[in-house]
Amino acid sequence: MAPTQRQRGDTLGLLMRRGMQGVGLLYFVSAALQYNDPDPLAWALIYGAAGGSALLRPGSRWSRPACSFVASVALCWALALLPDTRGVGLAQMTESMQAHGGRVEIAREVGGLLLVVLGMSAGLLADFRSRAGR
Q: Are 42 and 77 in contact (CB under 8 A)?
């Protein structure tokens, strides 16, 4: 017997929740790895906030505002850093994981912030989908 539309939706919802839990744990790992950064507090806070937001159950009271706030902060921060990344290509960002300082390091930071925006957008999608299914 083929699964009904509701059963398929429940399975997709479960996969989205599990995916967001995995993303949340990765953000917490990222926050913990900031201990050797020159400015660890700001980075640990944004990654920790993203981790906490990702772990909120989609459709809960705080899921949408938390994901929206963290995504907004990360996007504004990335846009503020973006002018300092002119001339940096993907090859330069990935050729060595050692800190180069300057533009390459800032470009990597922008990349991390954009990953936060992407993850929080996925959280918002899961939240909207959860609320639509009620």
A: no
Q: Which pTM does this prediction carry?
A: 0.83
- The Cα 41–Cα 103 span in angstroms is 21
Alpha carbon distance 95, 30 (integer Å): 20
What whole-number distance in Å separates Cα of residue 34 and Cα of residue 45? 10
Instruction: Please state the separation of Cα 40 from the chain's center in Å.
Output: 17
Tokens coding 3: 């699964």
Lowest-pLDDT choice from 29-38, 51-60, 91-100: 91-100
SS3 per-residue string spanning 36-94: HCCCHHHHHHHHHHHHHHHHCCCCCCCHHHHHHHHHHHHHHHHHHHHHHHCCCCHHHHH
Find all residues with CB under 8 Å of 81, minimum gap 6, and list them: 106, 109, 110, 113
Print burial letters for 44-66: b (CB count within 10 Å at least 16), e (below 16): bebbbbbbbbbbbebbeeebbeb
Tokens 């609320």 label which residue?
Answer: 131
Cβ burial, residue 9 (10 Å; 0-12/13-18/19+): middle
